[in-house]
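TA notes. Do not distribute before section.
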Amino acid sequence: MALDFGDVLTRAWQITWKNKIFWVFGIFAIVVSYLFLPLGLAPSVSIFMFEGTPFSIDEPVFWIGYLGIFLLILIVAFVVGALAQAAISLGVLRIEQGTEKFSFGELFKASQPLFWRFLGVMSLYAGGLLLFMVAVWGLQMLVSIFTLGLGTICLTPLSILIYPLMAVVYGWMEQALASIVVDDLGVFDAVQRGWRVFRANLMPVILMTLILYIGTGLVSGLVSIPLMAPFFAFFFTIIEGVEASRTIWIVSLLCAVIYLPFLAVFQSVALTFMKSGWILTYLRLTRNVETDVVVSTSA
């Protein structure tokens, strides 16, 4: 089925801008993911914090605790992200059905039955993609060991294939997630339905994946550049060959913290736009624009 990209993207932006309640769900998900920022800086900052003390980051207990905190934040971010996406997706569908206004609490409560299914589908795709990447990495390591590194060159195209594979996985996953909201499907039924829609509309879904993921990703990357100030400060001190100054770290970190709220709002808008685009894409590909969409009352 032909997909009018201009119509979908224009409508997605209208929904995003008019319904700022969706941004709140996005902000919750984005803020939790920001916990990775101080965690990423922790090893470098700890060098200065514990200077002159018996404690060292070379201690195994430091890295065990570091890994534990990393996994905890990863799980929390994944769970909150699933809840935010379920709420936004349901809200977009209800707007397309004609609902004009709803409260944060109402949408949060209504999206709870969808949450576990969203979490299940996202876990399946994330786990599958992770296993594939680990398998590729392991194969490269083995070939590198047995060929003294020469075989790695031959396997380079295999690494490049990861990127188109990710486009396929994301496009398929988004169709599966949309089917949960629109058609009230379970996890495995949604995966099957998502694949059928993806396979029947391969080029439109792939192109929409490139627009929504790569397009918004590039813009978000540009907007995120000021957050690199702490890293620039750290590498600047190394290049200059001087001891890292606590003052430089404090100033750069303060600048990053001040900028974070603005970035969180921007990224929540981007998330809302992406989810709106995917729900609209699914509706356009599976139903006539004029046809009313029916969603389960349990959603």
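Switch to the second chain here.
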Amino acid sequence: MEEVRGVLPIVSLLTAAGLAAQTLEVHSEFLRVNPRGDILTVDATPKPREILSPAIVRNGFASFHIVVRSPRPASYFLFAGTNPPNILRTAIYKEQFVKRGEDWIPDALQLLRPPNFEAIPDTGSGIPGQTACVYLVDVWVPPEAPAGRVRLEVQVKIGEWIIYPMEVRILAARAPSIVRNAKALPEIEQRVDEAVTVPLLNLKACRCKSSSQAALSDLTRGDTLESGSSPCFFVQTRATLSGSPSFRRSGLPVAPFTSGLRPLCRAHSP
């Protein structure tokens, strides 16, 4: 009987030690993690900040890396919940690794549908020595959400529950809706590069017989013609936002820098 009593504490200690070796971590979205649970060398920082109380504006997003570690093969259940419920919108993605050189880099994201039953190592990945699985939790605050604090918990059940609590601070500021702003913008009338190339490359000069007979001609940059005894010219530009052409007529030489553009032509007498 005494031998049994001596064995039970040892078994309990071994079980507790095995459970303690399995960990749950949450990192910033800028700190990527490899299949061993280590932050990539290119992203490493001497003192990474602990994610405890992130602030998110309404109609805004925040993302975090979830790292589940286990030195031995294990199956587990992954869950993200909020209190009060139905205020935040959360989604969990599993990060897929690709090999680059000697390291494995998280690249693609696979959306998980609850219930999220996972395992270490990931049998479908073919990563040797994998001791960690990495996920991305995406949090969205609806625009009508009240400002305040919401508890966000990432939970993993591996024999027992491991919980990582966070207190999300919902700010009163609201990010603008992209859809509404897009509807208010004018239609696109030109290529994205025309706003820069047209003012720089399509400056043209012309000769006018009179102010009522002004015409735009395809002259090379720097060419000028006369109107009476004094030179005159037209500069063709295109408005950056609206895309509609506008013309400016003057009897003076073009300034070296007009509206911040480099000088391309100058009017002068022949």
